């Protein structure tokens, strides 16, 4: 067992779970899984609890770095008030009028100094931490502090400032109350799987925990150069590969998003020019679109050569906070923010990261970030940038979209994504308002989450001669799902590396089996970060169900409907407990499969099969939108069928009145079955151990 632990506070874990790349070094070989940088056993701890303590804290950071220490932790958004008198006056005047504290309860600066950080395997650390605890993570998110109407009022005030020429962009945020029960480490494991962020962090000070799944780089300093990657421009992910590609293309070409992004790029160029060598500020990349599990984001890259011997504090005073979370011009935007937002931001929108010897530094922008007290209560900030042509409802929806990663990680989510209330939450919800808001947004309630550690599956038939039917279709689906879920980045290098790893693992597995006389069922698992495993076992039975004179195998209908809007239905993953339970029940009852209908009463799929019905010579199969997995055999049959197979809504009556019923998957092929007139009650899912049962016996398409 490693000597490192996430249960020995104080500590800072800086975590790149997207590409296994930390501190600028590309992972490879043994370091491929060492995606974390752990700071523990501090020699010094720095805290600034009041604004007047910030100058001394920054000077202390400079001194410790000069002595060869590494420092890691956070700087709160309001730190800038220590060197910007107008911002301080606006923050404190606004707080006095509202009768609330001007600054968050956590320290404005918290940093720990160590002699050297340790490269760690974050997945291993999380596994060992959770193995030592039986507690799971429960997360409840409160309703937004502003309803759609309340937001509209604040939005109008901000637009007035823009129209008057005070600012041309302002970033407006609000905080959702968060309550965590159980283990915050387990919650961090959940959110890192759902966000797959390159600039994540888990910080435990003993009094405070900060869980950050930030995709945004604020500043990275290496070898005398500085890099900033402001993020501005957001779009939701699509429900299919085609829609996904269309939405990404639309964001890349969106003039409003480009204008917002360019405003912040210009602001960052101006900030960095204060500490850069003359003429060295450049913008090598503009308007790049990156995919994350719940949304697309537009980023640009600003670089510069720094003046020699520049201490960290000078760089912070020049550029902090990041312009992407203020607006422009920065100081006036921060004054307006202080007067319009309901409270201090604290760590949210400040910076998390480290300062090291020889000028090394990496800081994120702490968006997608929880700040929790010792009692597990805290907040999650959400926000968006507002410009002259922004629309209130669009910006409000963007704020809610940015909390989707947390809702997917929630096991006890109390949030109402259709809008909150400006009054204290009574626990009551207005169905009419909810329906109206859903119509306005075009979205349904947030879908069920994927579990931490969820992997993609491809189950293939391995013939005795080494042939894998539909191999290319399997690998194409695996790659498409990995991109859609953010399990691999959009980088062509990263994608090729993962695809090559899958191909190599399959080839090595087939070679290791040697001469075979039996067909095998081969399972490929692709985990977060690109980890690949390949296993196989002999395939029992025969794909056609036996001899021609034997009775047709039977199927029955599950009593439990499927939520066809859940993200699990669009991708073949290990987060499919109900299917495992149904497959086991089918074997116990001597059934070929158990079929599921969705919550709208339409046929979706079987536990291990795609379903086809034939009536009057016409073939039909359930639509993907009704809950059918985009099966590999299904896709092949639809592409080759003549006459064509119709993808359509199939009711209970249509299934019962069919002339023939078939089930099929890529391992066993197409089999005709008979429908048993009974409803099968499935055992309840009892917990995590139940959810992982029997994966090796799964063979769904």
UniProtKB/TrEMBL annotation:
Pfam families: Aminotran_4 (PF01063), Chorismate_bind (PF00425). GO terms for molecular function: 4-amino-4-deoxychorismate synthase activity; lyase activity. Residues 410-450 are annotated as: Disordered. Keywords: Lyase. Residues 422-440 have a biased composition (Basic and acidic residues). GO terms for biological process: folic acid-containing compound biosynthetic process; L-tryptophan biosynthetic process. Residues 149-402 form the Chorismate-utilising enzyme C-terminal domain. NCBIfam families: pabB. This is Probable branched-chain-amino-acid aminotransferase. It comes from Eilatimonas milleporae.
């Amino acid at each position: 067992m490693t000597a490192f632990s996430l249960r020995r506070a104080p500590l800072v874990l800086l975590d790149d779970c997207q590409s296994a790349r930390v501190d600028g070094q590309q992972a490879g070989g043994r370091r491929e899984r060492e995606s974390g940088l752990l700071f523990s056993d501090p020699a010094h701890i720095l805290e600034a609890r009041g604004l007047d303590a910030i100058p001394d804290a920054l000077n202390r950071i400079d001194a410790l770095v000069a002595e060869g220490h590494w420092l890691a932790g956070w700087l709160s958004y309001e730190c800038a008030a220590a060197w910007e008198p107008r911002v301080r006056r606006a923050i404190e005047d606004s707080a006095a009028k509202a009768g609330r504290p001007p600054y968050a309860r956590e320290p404005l600066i918290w940093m720990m100094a160590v002699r050297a950080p340790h490269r760690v395997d974050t997945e291993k650390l999380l596994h060992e931490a959770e193995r030592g605890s039986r507690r799971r993570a429960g997360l409840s998110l409160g309703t937004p502090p502003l309803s759609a109407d309340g937001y509209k009022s604040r939005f109008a005030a901000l637009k007035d400032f823009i129209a008057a020429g005070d600012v041309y962009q302002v970033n407006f945020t609000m905080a959702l109350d968060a309550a965590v029960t159980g283990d915050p480490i387990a919650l961090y494991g959940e959110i890192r799987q759902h966000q797959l962020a390159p600039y994540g962090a888990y910080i435990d000070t003993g009094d405070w925990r900060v869980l950050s799944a930030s995709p945004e780089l604020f500043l990275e300093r290496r070898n005398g150069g500085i890099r900033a990657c402001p993020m501005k421009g957001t779009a939701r992910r699509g429900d299919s590969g085609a829609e996904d590609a269309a939405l990404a293309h639309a964001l890349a070409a969106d003039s409003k998003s480009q204008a917002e992004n360019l405003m912040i790029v210009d602001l960052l160029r101006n900030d960095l020019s204060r500490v850069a060598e003359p003429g060295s500020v450049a913008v090598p990349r503009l308007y790049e679109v990156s995919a994350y599990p719940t949304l697309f984001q537009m980023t640009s890259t600003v670089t510069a050569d720094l003046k020699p011997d520049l201490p960290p504090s000078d760089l912070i005073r020049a550029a902090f906070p990041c312009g992407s979370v203020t607006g422009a011009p920065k100081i006036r935007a921060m004054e307006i923010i202080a007067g319009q937002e309901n409270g201090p931001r604290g760590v949210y929108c400040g910076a998390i990261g480290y300062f090291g010897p020889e000028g090394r530094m990496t800081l994120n922008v702490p968006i997608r970030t929880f700040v929790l007290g010792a009692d597990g209560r805290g907040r999650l900030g959400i926000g968006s940038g507002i410009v002259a042509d922004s629309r209130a409802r669009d910006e409000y929806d963007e704020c809610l979209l940015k909390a989707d990663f947390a809702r997917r990680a929630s096991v006890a989510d109390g949030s109402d994504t259709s809008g909150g209330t400006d009054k204290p939450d009574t626990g009551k919800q207005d169905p009419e308002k909810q329906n109206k808001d859903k119509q306005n947004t075009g979205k349904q309630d947030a879908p069920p989450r994927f579990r931490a550690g969820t992997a993609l599956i491809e189950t293939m038939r391995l013939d005795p001669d080494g042939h894998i039917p539909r191999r290319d279709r399997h690998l194409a689906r695996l790659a498409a799902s990995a991109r859609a879920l953010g399990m691999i980045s959009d980088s062509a290098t990263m994608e090729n590396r993962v695809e090559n790893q899958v191909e190599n693992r399959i080839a090595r597995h087939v070679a290791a089996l040697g001469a075979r006389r039996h067909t095998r069922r081969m399972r490929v698992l692709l985990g977060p970060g690109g980890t690949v495993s390949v296993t196989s076992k002999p395939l029992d039975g025969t794909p056609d169900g036996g001899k021609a004179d034997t009775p047709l195998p039977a199927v029955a209908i599950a009593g439990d409907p499927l939520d066809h809007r859940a993200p699990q239905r669009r991708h073949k993953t290990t987060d499919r407990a109900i299917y495992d339970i149904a497959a086991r029940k089918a074997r116990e009852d001597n059934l070929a499969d158990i079929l599921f209908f969705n919550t709208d009463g339409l046929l979706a799929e079987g536990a291990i099969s795609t379903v086809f019905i034939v009536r009057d010579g016409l073939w039909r199969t359930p639509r993907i939108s009704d809950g059918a997995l985009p099966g590999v055999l299904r896709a092949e049959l639809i592409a080759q069928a003549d006459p064509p197979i119709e993808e359509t809504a199939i009711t209970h009556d249509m299934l019962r009145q069919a002339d023939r019923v078939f089930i099929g998957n890529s391992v066993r092929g197409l089999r005709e079955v008979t429908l048993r007139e009974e409803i099968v009650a499935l055992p309840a899912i009892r917990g995590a151990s139940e959810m992982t049962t029997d994966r090796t016996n799964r063979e769904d398409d």
